[in-house]
Design brief:
Elements lengths: L2 E10 L12 E10 L2 E7 L11 E4 L4 E4 L1 E3 L11 H8 L4 H6 L4 H10 L2 H16 L3 E7 L6 H17 L3 E9 L10 H18 L5 E6 L6 H13 L5 E4 L7 H7 L4 E4 L5 H10 L2 E4 L1 H6 L8 H7 L3 E3 L13 H12 L3 H7 L2 H6 L16 E4 L5 H5 L6 E5 L5
Parallel strand pairs: 1-4, 1-5, 6-7, 7-8, 8-9, 9-10, 10-11, 11-12, 12-13
Antiparallel strand pairs: 1-2, 2-3, 5-14, 14-15
């Protein structure tokens, strides 16, 4: 048994918030790690004396939070879309670019042509940036293949990331992301001939932890998404959904009917959708990077989500087009400045609520029995994580108790 005691720390445990202490702060605190898990947490004065040969380390008053969780990314892809960035600055909308053959479809072409080794090498540059900011868990979607072989190739790369770096990867099959050029005008045929067979292959190979979709006018209708979700349910896989980003097709309510882990984006979410999510226990994943990059003006209904008690997570949405963002710290700042989340909500959104959005119960908080995935920061108060811009105060990251 390996045992470590970390002392002289301030802990933001991110346990269930209270009106008096939203971060779950414990000052002059200590915690004990055994075999990769948190064994004890509390005031240093109460530290157990029978720790045997435990290695003790003083953190000299530093702040400790759960390691960060990025619960929505498209981090595996080929090429880039810098030219489309220029087009948007010249006045073209996201939808106009997509309908002209750009957007997701252009990344599909590049990803199909890129070798698996190159996809992995390029993805690791983005993953390393997240690790350097204290991330220990990362969701990665497919969806830039839109054929069976490339969808599986992307999921293999996602699994390889976890074998190559000390980070936990949760995969989502996103075959229903866009309609490829070779199926233009035939979305149902694409679902039948590519998406559902690819989903089955991914499930057979153990490559998918969940199933996602894009319910939008430029993508798939609620009825088409329901067919994908029916197959996911038959394969025992949980679902999540890109919903209400550009319009309101009642995708969030559809996702809620399937007890979705989350519905994501949600700028056009209405009251009925909020209520459906609240009743289903689905997490609202807000993506300020896409809102910022696309220069959107319609804000997600944060007040309505709060009032209904819907958990709010935030994520980078790291992708080559609408959110080329690989910084959870900047995501936290954007969530506060653009969406008016509080700094506590922002930190919860990349820890406790992000874990919930992935269906994980063993991380996202500092509590006995959970994984010792921790971030140690050179700051005095957790609000500083969302307050600063372009500043990384990470002192150390522990992954399963290992620095």
């Amino acid at each position: 048994m390996t045992r470590r005691a970390l002392t002289d720390a301030t802990l933001a445990t991110m346990a269930a918030p209270t009106s008096t202490e939203p971060y779950g702060l414990i000052e002059n605190a200590a915690l004990v790690i055994e075999d990769g898990r948190i064994a004890w947490v509390g005031p240093a004065d109460d530290l157990p004396q029978n720790l045997g040969d435990a290695v003790s380390e003083s953190l000299n008053g530093r702040l400790v939070t759960p390691a960060l969780i990025d619960c929505h990314t498209h981090i595996v892809f080929g090429g880039n879309r810098a030219r489309e960035f220029e087009m948007r600055l010249q006045g073209a909308s996201y939808e106009e670019i997509a309908r002209a053959g750009g957007g997701i479809v252009s990344t599909v072409q590049a990803t199909r042509m890129t070798y698996e080794t190159t996809l992995l090498k390029d993805a690791l540059t983005r993953v390393d940036a997240l690790i350097a900011e204290g991330a220990a868990t990362l969701e990665i979607k497919s969806g830039y293949g839109l054929d069976i072989d490339t969808e599986l190739k992307m999921l293999h790369v996602a699994r390889a990331i976890a074998d190559t770096r000390p980070i936990r990867v949760v995969t989502s099959f996103l075959g229903a992301h866009a309609i490829p050029a070779d199926y233009a005008g035939q979305p149902d045929a694409y679902i039948d001939e590519v998406c559902l067979p690819a989903l089955d292959r991914a499930a057979d190979l153990g490559l998918a932890d969940a199933v996602d979709g894009f319910c939008e006018g430029i993508a798939f209708t609620p009825d088409q998404i329901a067919r994908v979700f029916d197959r996911a349910r038959a394969r025992g896989l949980p679902v999540k959904l890109h919903a209400e980003q550009l319009s309101n097709l009642n995708g969030a309510a559809l996702a809620a009917r399937y007890r979705a882990l989350s519905a994501d984006h949600l700028e056009h979410l209405d009251t009925a959708g909020i209520q459906a999510m609240a009743e289903a226990g689905s997490v609202a994943v807000l993506l300020p990077g896409a809102f910022y990059t696309l220069r959107e003006t319609r804000l997600p209904p944060v007040d309505g989500l709060r009032e209904a008690g819907v958990p709010i997570a935030i994520a980078t949405d790291c992708n080559p087009g609408s959110s080329p963002l690989a910084s959870l710290l900047l995501t936290m700042n954007m969530a506060c400045t653009l969406f008016r989340l509080t700094p506590e909500e922002a930190l919860a959104g990349v820890t406790r609520e992000a874990a919930l959005a992935l269906g994980l119960t063993d991380c996202g908080r500092i509590e006995p029995g959970l994984r010792a995935d921790l971030a140690v920061w050179d700051i005095a108060h957790p609000a500083e994580l969302a307050y600063r811009i372009g500043f990384n105060p990470l002192h150390a990251r522990l992954f399963g108790g290992t620095p």
